[in-house]
Amino acid sequence: MVLADELAKKQRSISVAEFFEKNKQMLGFDSPTRGIITTIKEAIDNSLDACEEAQVLPDILVSVRRISNDVFRVVVEDNGPGIVPEKMPSVFAKLLYGSRFHQVRQTRGQQGIGISAAVLYAQLTTGKPTIVTSRTDAKNKAHTMSLVIKTETNEPEVLSHEEVDWILPHGTRVQLEFKSNIAARKKLIEYLKYTSIVNPHAKFRVEIDDESFTFERVSSEVPPCPVAIKPHPYGIELGVLKRMTAASDLPLKEFLVESFSKVGEKTALEICSSARLDSAVKVSSLGLESLNPLLDAMQTTKIPAPSASQCLSPITDELIVKGMEKEFELDFIKARTRPGSVYGGHSFIVEAAIGYGGKLPPEGSAILLRFANRVPLLYQQGACAITNAVQNVNWKSYGVSQSGLPTGPILILVHVAATNVPFTSESKDAVAAVPEIEREITLALQELGRDLKMFLSRRDRNKLQDDRARAICSVIPLIAAKVGEIVELPVPDTSLIEGRIMRRVVLKKSSAGGKVMIHIDNYTTKSQEISLYDISGDNAGDATVPPSFVSEMDGEYTKIWKVTLSAGEAFEVTYTGSGGGMIEMQGVAENLKVVVDLDV
Amino acid sequence: MVLADELAKKQRSISVAEFFEKNKQMLGFDSPTRGIITTIKEAIDNSLDACEEAQVLPDILVSVRRISNDVFRVVVEDNGPGIVPEKMPSVFAKLLYGSRFHQVRQTRGQQGIGISAAVLYAQLTTGKPTIVTSRTDAKNKAHTMSLVIKTETNEPEVLSHEEVDWILPHGTRVQLEFKSNIAARKKLIEYLKYTSIVNPHAKFRVEIDDESFTFERVSSEVPPCPVAIKPHPYGIELGVLKRMTAASDLPLKEFLVESFSKVGEKTALEICSSARLDSAVKVSSLGLESLNPLLDAMQTTKIPAPSASQCLSPITDELIVKGMEKEFELDFIKARTRPGSVYGGHSFIVEAAIGYGGKLPPEGSAILLRFANRVPLLYQQGACAITNAVQNVNWKSYGVSQSGLPTGPILILVHVAATNVPFTSESKDAVAAVPEIEREITLALQELGRDLKMFLSRRDRNKLQDDRARAICSVIPLIAAKVGEIVELPVPDTSLIEGRIMRRVVLKKSSAGGKVMIHIDNYTTKSQEISLYDISGDNAGDATVPPSFVSEMDGEYTKIWKVTLSAGEAFEVTYTGSGGGMIEMQGVAENLKVVVDLDV
To answer: What pTM value is reported for the model?
Structure first.
């Protein structure tokens, strides 16, 4: 057959840049609009990672400007540690080049693809190079380069390079131009809003055409930079072990201790004996017949899980709750952080939160916010293990209706923090269906579901009680009036009874015979911190409880008592005076307040 | 800042093999079970493509065998054209190497990644090389090689190479071993079933452990091998145009005619004048200031769409309908092929089909079968543009309930055939959200929706008529009896009336005075092919319509008439005899049959 020879002529290598130029959708460049978001996201990922490494509070400028009919210029500038000039070409104009790929720790960038992909997309759509400026030190000048990727070889090409003055002492600025049709304003703001929530220490200044605004930082603490750890024995695969042993000149015991996380001398010896291998044998001499039992031993010996605290940087419950509350003014919000776990040797932690009510849309599917390594995931929701896990929870058993996602005024946030997030593609839109990760998400959501159920049933119970109380209270004054009529006495004051039934804080002031009496009952189920204001001509100099504060103006005395009342507790103060004036409480919710001023 | 220098030390290249070893989920190796399916799929894609190129009827062996507790051996063997020995290492043990990446035509493999990814996965999980045997010609021996990928460099390593005798005159056999837990039997059969439907010319022999079975070919016609075409001017991006012009020594007009599909001299001149460029200018001299207007001109000048028929190979309506009917015995089935279309310069065609009823599950979401370039897509349904398009159709307007997907006994098949299918990732599970493709899918589904609606409303109307008829028929005998009673006559036979009302085929036999009469009325709306059986002591020698067949046994004559009756038509035969015996029809559905034997 001559055909095989003919076919052979067409067989050749494909450069990785050629590959991704043809398959740009895999990098998140499906459409021109999306291209803008992906570019900014990749640049910001790099900026935040670099600032974290330098322990600098990130101050990031994002600018999107239409410079001709269909060409947009995107600039992202940070105050990070900068990049040395020798590395600038490869960092920005070579796919599969970076510092974080080979490290075992949580970072936003991990593939060595992101920003170079944006450079590739820019030159593909406009033919224009990307302009990068970076400065590493106040003592040196900044370097500006104009870069393209040579597609056939995936190598950087420097079109120009000069030293320039720059106002920033250190930092990096990248400027790209590409074709698009709109500035993707809404999606960009959405992306920055969610990025701010999970990076409260970062400040973003945004310029979209002639508009500018700022996402201020709400915390001035740089999160600790995750520390790179060694791989864990449970996550190693045979091929990798084979490569590691071939490259090492250590004896087995030392190799195990040196190369792996959580393996001490004792564990190493245990592994050797379980594999029936001499602990002093040179690992480079081991063949498959020894490596197979060695790997088995490594993965069956009891070894502690990798310490997640070092290499991972979860957002924390507190910051999640703060961020979500600020955004949505929720009636209910709860966050959970699962303990650290492992898949294929990679540490990960799942954090999740559920919010209810507030400003959330009352109908339709829940809002699902997905994050991986502190980066919001904005596309491919349907492809994501997070979505899958949320849909597989039986929400009905938590009192929530469901059609795929739960429905109603519900917000679900899930954050997967991992030393290697298993994304379904280079565009980093969706987490792959790794059973260990799905399981942790499910457990977090189930815990939160139980909390939500309690909230909902308490709310329902409260609502029921409230309805009943309201019904009773509506007839009490009528009964009182009727009774008064029958016994021919003045109608009694029923506010106190109503207050008790309605579970309110009731404030009552009365005066008689030159004595003034102020009484507060806390009929609610919670402790209340109350500021009681009493403004009248009386100075209350002989008050049984002296006021915390008194001031006088034109013969009117403002007296303030700071009172803390547990549920069911009461407060009373009396003083000599003629009463009148006005009375008020602060610190009690309006709908829980009953003020009965019998002294007007 | 020293930090930038420190960070620079960690910055380095990542080999594409290293990248995919760490991100194996992107290649479809999320889990061991899936690994088996992905491997077989990649090998079969190659086999089918190669057989198509050689115009050979594919005869493919797939074998999956557990060879130890957790190690499985997968073999795929084909009768394709084979691979020359010099190319075997790179084809199987180098990622991003292949013959189809740079060609503009429909192929199953297009990335140069698939089978090498499987080799990478095998060596990663078992440390074992992949064994490839290939023969290109009966005159030469076969070559067997044992291959691994050097991960750090993405280069093939040949561990052994020998010439061997082989029973096949030409073909390729690949054998891989990897860790898994189960043989993924069900998913494998599903994959092969759907692959057979869209490749009816292929035969698959399957061996899973000790079980073996065959998917026979149902067509012995090899589909024509799609012909590679030149890129279309509408789909070129500036970066690519820049590269093409830089590498060419042609004048502009000749460059346009030579390099692009559907550009003749006249069109080329039109483009030149619209771009205000000299048609004789050497293209290698053109800078961005000329290339930008040139591209604009290329994309605004009216140029016919690329001819889909050459470079694409749709399944065709006929084969889709055949395949689906065979599998599901549907009540309704319709397929549509949209005209060829273009996205980003890549030709594509959408084919779709809808089936209803039959053996489909009556409740729950519709079954959705997705195909791309004749390959079934089995994973990541939620991430796929096909799913998205199906969900965005308003199925309620076609009389079908919907909750995301349509619900009920519905089957939807969509095939996207393209010179470059925009997959969301290297695992080729899902089509990316390209607006042009989604639009074509939507249009195909809307056309089919209208057909389905007509079927459903006709069916509903029939059902309504049936219900009404049933109601009337249930009282007719009572009325007849009552009338008989009143007029003191025997109760008349009402079956004929009922048959007419109910739209049945009514067969009636009676005899009187030594004459037998058999009468058939086709009251249905369709033509009926009926075999009428009449078994009695009469030989019907003088029948007015001679029987098609007569036989005698122990004095009983079986007479058969083959009768075709259009809707509304009747048949009658009489003969001399005494009647009795039995009578029956075949060829008419049981629920349409009324037999009235008045001659028992």
So the answer is: 0.75
